[in-house]
Amino acid sequence: MRGIFFLLIVGLVGGATLVGLGVWQLQRLAWKEAILADIDARIGAAPVPLPAAPDPVADRYLPVEVSGEIEPGEIQVLVSIKRVGPGLRIIAPFTTEDGRRILLDRGFVEIPEKETERLLGPMTVTGNLHWPQETDSFTPEPDPVSDTWFARDVPMMAASLQTEPVLLVARSRTGPGIRPLPVDSAAVPNDHLQYAITWFSLALIWAGMTVYFLWRGRAGAERES
């Protein structure tokens, strides 16, 4: 009986712990969904002029409208989008009417359009400020042969194109053949529902194993008696 009592305690404590972790993940899910809703509302708000000193934290996703000129020279970042396949993000220098030089993410072109000349010159662009975190220790350096980048690194791109470390991701069209890839909240990870399901599933498995071992222990005790 002592062994059965021990199994029961372990089963209850383990099951309660797993259920508690599942409930915690549901709470985290509600918290993350509130954050995503706030991000979506911020992204879709009315555009404002470019701040004098954009802050990577406070001004992330800020909707902005600027007028100026798209300048020659561009960075091509390798990307892939669903139902289309691989292509390139086109990052160009943009000089505003008041003389500031920033980065403009014009959008997506397919690989065959790599060498196509793109529209330059005066333009008004609506988009969102963004400082994407796409690089890690495994991200390759830009390929000097194909002149292809593998992630958007704002400081590196700014140094390469001699601009402020400010990236405006266009949501308006910036020329024929270029598909805007506007900022959205899809890139913000939200796996809490999957984690909750995992913990609750483990709790069910734990409960089943506890019942099985209790049954075996009781059956063994009855045989011995």
TrEMBL record:
Membrane-crossing residue ranges in chain numbering: 195-215
The membrane topology of this protein is: Multi-pass membrane protein
Q: Which InterPro entries match?
A: Surf1/Shy1, Surf1/Surf4
Q: Fetch the PROSITE patterns from UniProt.
A: SURF1
Keyword Ribosomal protein in the entry? The reply is: no
Pfam families to which the protein is assigned, alphabetical: SURF1
By what name is this protein known?
Answer: SURF1-like protein
What compartments host this protein? Answer: Cell membrane; Membrane
Family in the record: Belongs to the SURF1 family.
**UniProt key word Transmembrane helix:** yes
Keyword list (alphabetical) reads: Cell membrane, Membrane, Transmembrane, Transmembrane helix
The species this protein was found in = Sedimentitalea arenosa
This protein's GO CC annotations:
plasma membrane
